[in-house]
Amino acid sequence: MSIGWADCAAPPAYPTLKGVKRGSVYEVERVVVGPLETNCYLICKGSECLVVDPGAEPERIAERLAGRGVAAIVATHLHFDHVGAVEALAERFRAPFIAHRADWELREVFARVAESWGFEAPRLPEPSPAGAELPLGLRALHVPGHTPGSIAVLGDGFVLTGDLLFRGSVGRTDLPGGDWETLVRSVCSLYELPPSYAVLPGHGPPTTLGREARANYFVPQSTCKKY
Ligand SMILES: [Zn+2]
Ligand SMILES: [Zn+2]
Q: In this protein, which residues make up the domain named Metallo-beta-lactamase (predicted)?
């Protein structure tokens, strides 16, 4: 979940998902789902896709797959708004579910947070632990801070940042397991990647690492020296 957008001005030109596709071996599609408008991404290579953060609306996500297979379902972290459709899709496509252990250990705590906000806590299959290698040649980076088990999904020319990094903003750190200094270090580690990389966040519009390094309201690259 995002904290308020720091940057309320009209959005500048930012890379489109089509921009990701150009020169990439992957096709990336976004499906915005659920009451918190979570970005679910389909990262597809040929007829196989990785489904990242299916937060709700499994039927719509399945439709968008349009007959393609699901190599795996990945959660950038286990907040309910990112995993509400995991169980339905994992059963329907017989796909493995991948998430980081550190978040799985907090699943009961996250469930209570969801309930305290009036949402039903999703039931989840036990995930395979996220290692560095993901199916379809994608990679997982451990980027704790928003939650201890947050991961980013890295492809050629793009990175899915979950609730770590948004356009102009970063994820909140006041939920269980969140930690501000850890989050800053994780964001700074992403700035080591090429600035042209598209950032595809868990909520809101895309951006680039270069733009955020320069102009992120909370964690521009100039902050990184202090951490
Ligand atoms: Zn979220
Ligand atoms: Zn979250």
A: 37-203
How far is ligand 2, taken at its centre, from the CA of residue 21, in Å? 26
- What pLDDT is recorded for position 150? 98
157 alpha carbon to ligand 2 midpoint, in Å? 24
Cα 173 to averaged position of ligand 1 atoms, centre (Å):
12
Contacts of 49 by beta carbon, 8 Å cutoff, 6+ apart: 42, 43, 65, 68, 69, 70, 71, 136
| Helix count and strand count (H, E) for the chain | 8, 13
Q: What is the pLDDT of residues 149-196, one digit of tens each?
A: 999 999 999 999 999 999 999 999 999 999 999 999 999 999 999 999
Q: Ligand 1 center to residue 163 CA distance, Å? A: 5
pTM strictly above 0.85: yes
Cα 131 to middle of ligand 1, angstroms: 22
Instruction: Give the closest ligand to the alpha carbon of residue 172.
Output: 2
User: Are the CB atoms for 124 and 94 separated by under 8 Å?
Assistant: no
pLDDT less than 50: residues of the chain:
1-16, 18-19
What are the sequence ranges of the domains in the chain? Answer: 17-219
CATH superfamily label, 17-219: Ribonuclease Z/Hydroxyacylglutathione hydrolase-like (3.60.15.10)
